[in-house]
Amino acid sequence: MSRRRRPAGRGRDDADAPFLGVELAPARAIVPGHTNLDMDRSLTRNFCIIAHVDHGKTTLSDRLLERTGTIQKRDMQDQLLDSMSLERERGITIKAHPVTMNYRGKDGRDYLLNLIDTPGHVDFSYEVSRSLAACEGALLIIDAAQGVEAQTVANVHLAMQGKLTIIPVINKIDLPAADVPSVIHQIEDILQIPGEEAILASAKNGIGIDEILEAIVSRLPAPVAPASTSLQALVYDSVYDAYRGVVTYVRIYAGELRPGSQIQMMHSRTKYEVKEVGIFTPKPRKQGRLLEGDVGYVIANIKTTAEVKVGDTITDAQRPAESPLPGFKELHPMVFSGIYPVDTSDFEHLKAAMAKLQLNDSAFVYTPETSAALGFGFRCGFLGLLHMEIVQERLRREYDMDIIATYPSVVYQVAKSDGEVIEISNPAELPNPSHIEEIREPTVKAFLMLPNDNMGDILQLIMDRRGVVHTTESLDTRRVMLTCELPLNEILVDFNDRIKSLTRGYGSMDYEPGPYRANDMVKMDILVNGEPIDAFSSIVHRDKAEGRGRQLALKLKEIIPPQLFSVPVQAAIGGKIIARETIRAVGKDVTAKCYGGDITRKRKLWEKQKEGKKRMKMIGKVNIPQEAFIKVLKAD
Fold it and tell me: Which residue ranges form the domains of the chain, and what is each CATH number?
């Protein structure tokens, strides 16, 4: 087997990992007839695995690869499809990983199984929906001990909207705390899926794997015959390879893709020439062409993932399809934060690191900005909080950057008095209050699952975060599900942690974007010696402004070192001061040399000192050390 080798001395990004060992000469044939013109489409099954975080989705993928002989025993490792070190460490899937497997069914026929291992976190729900669109069926994994969770419900709704055939799998039946009858009851009551369809399994110990494979070939439908003869291929993901450009993951719905053909993206109208097509086993393997029903990859002369939109349709440039595949939408960032280098001389290094990250993650956006306090940096947009954490962690780990991030904010809609509606993500962009008619904030529809005992604490938490509970459903004798609406900026920082803390780890949350709601939002500035500090400005609800202002002022009082004069630290809304702390002046005993004598002599010196401090306060500047910003922002 010949392999492409990376030149010695070159580093590699984790995201490049799947493409390091491209198999140029197949070690063994793929399903007989796969490259044949007359391939039987009825022997192909396209499916994905959906589950709540940590219910065993990636472990089950490992067992399926092992059982079908796709991976040899000597090459097997845990979390095989999770190539990033972050994915392995956190036990989550960040990028979708496709793989093609061969399976000989009990009927003696050879099947081609295309598995797409999807991300499970809410931040990547659009990628999940596009991955689901590339399939005809889904394995729904439910933990036998934990039962149906918030994300399970959300993923099932997505799968049902996509009209997928669902096979429920109750995993981890070997655990001492497993309660299979209760889980079957939840599947019937909450998900409306017949309990007798559930397969009992333990991915860790290999129990029930044969039954799952038989269910895939017997219960899931084959790809339907295309209505069009023109090429229609759904883009459900893309990654950047340092040597070959963008590798686009596709599902072919109609027509065929082969090297040398001219293709066109239906959204951007850009045209490219196909250099290579292939499938994943799980390493990329070249094929002569991809036919309808196939899941694989396309390499064309595409330079950045920004040119490839997830959900777009690829068609033939000479004979384009009449209409694109449904479901495409532009991805817009939901959460914004400023990212600055701790050492200002690292700005160019940070800029290069972000450009490399964006090659692999088109949902991540950034624009340069400057701050009087923090210097040069970037305003960055993310899909959600986990996405933000991952980007920041990758900057620190893969690019060795020491960064500081400002308080996260969301995108607000501002209706001006002249009728214009603008979107702002930075408090500095807020127009003059006299020109503002109303400010609308984004909301989310949240599903919370929790034990009955913690109901009171969680309802109090929702009220504190300005949320409204719409419905309450009892799942069983122990748990309840709340459906509520919450402002997005209220759940940004520690909401999920508070739920886990209050429910001792038994609570779970999932959410989906909701509408914008008009509310009494104001811009709060932090003034140090009368000067506004832009790094601490934020848009908050009027009722919450005073509490947050006091908290920040107190924190700054503790961190900013004493000056030669007393320094006021204030929180202000417009011209109104809502909170104040004072940093004391450094004391100097000017009467130390006065031994005895008239008291008026001492008073003269004290008055002189007082006048000097007054003059200094008028012209003095307070230098806030960089460490102060780091401590305050990291504390937030």
Answer: 31-219 (3.40.50.300), 232-316 (2.40.30.10), 336-406 (3.30.70.870), 413-519 (3.30.70.240), 522-635 (3.30.70.2570)
